[in-house]
Amino acid sequence: MNQKDCECMLSAFDETVKIGMNSIMPIKSIKVYPKDAPWMTIKLKELIRLRQLAFHSNKEGSEYKTLRTKVNRERKTSKAKFYSFKVEDLKGKNPKQWWKEINRLSGAFTLRSTDSGDLLNKLQAIPELQDMPRRDIANQLNAAFLEPLQAFHLLDPTTVRVPLENDSDILQLPVY
Question: So which domain of life are we looking at (predicted)?
Fold first, then answer.
């Protein structure tokens, strides 16, 4: 085969694949907004768009009322599917993660009004740090973070020893 025949066959194959892919999975553009609910689907968005058009044309008409009912039903089914898939996905994980996500989804652990969520309020819950001035709390935290560093020793500032491929060969470099 010559080069022209191969190129023709490749372009014919490529065109056939493109036609097949476009008929099976056509390219569609959708708009996804960060504030969309996680259960928002393309079908639900389209129904909402149609409902809004019907509302603006005649809000007392039967078309608007029908689309309003369809939107509500689709929203409920999309929401139910989303949460059932979310919980089904969690069943394969460890129980701690599963319960944490279930509690988050159900809103069981919402912040209390007295708990602002900042670090100082959380530190005040520790009995040793209660009624302690902020400066002393900061010093306690610094000491706690620096404690693990006490196990390390300073290097000799005149030379740094770098091991080479053989453990016995050591290259000494001056430090500037």
Answer: Eukaryota
Q: Could you give the CA distance from residue 90 to residue 101 in angstroms, rounded to a whole number?
A: 8
Q: What are the two backbone dihedrals, phi and then psi, of residue 33, each rounded to the nearest 5 degrees?
A: -110, 145
Sign of CA dihedral 150, 152, 153, 154: negative
Model-level pTM greater than 0.85?
no
Buried b / exposed e over 125-158, threshold 16 CB at 10 Å, is eeeeeeeeeeeebeeeeeeeeeeeeeeeeeeeee
HEC-encoded secondary structure of 47-60: HHHHHHHHHHHCCC
DSSP string over 85-129: HHHHHHTTS-HHHHHHHHHHHHTTTPPPTT----HHHHHHTSGGG
Please state, as a whole number, how many other Cβ atoms lie within 10 Å of the Cβ of residue 33: 8
Q: Where are the domains of the chain?
A: 35-94
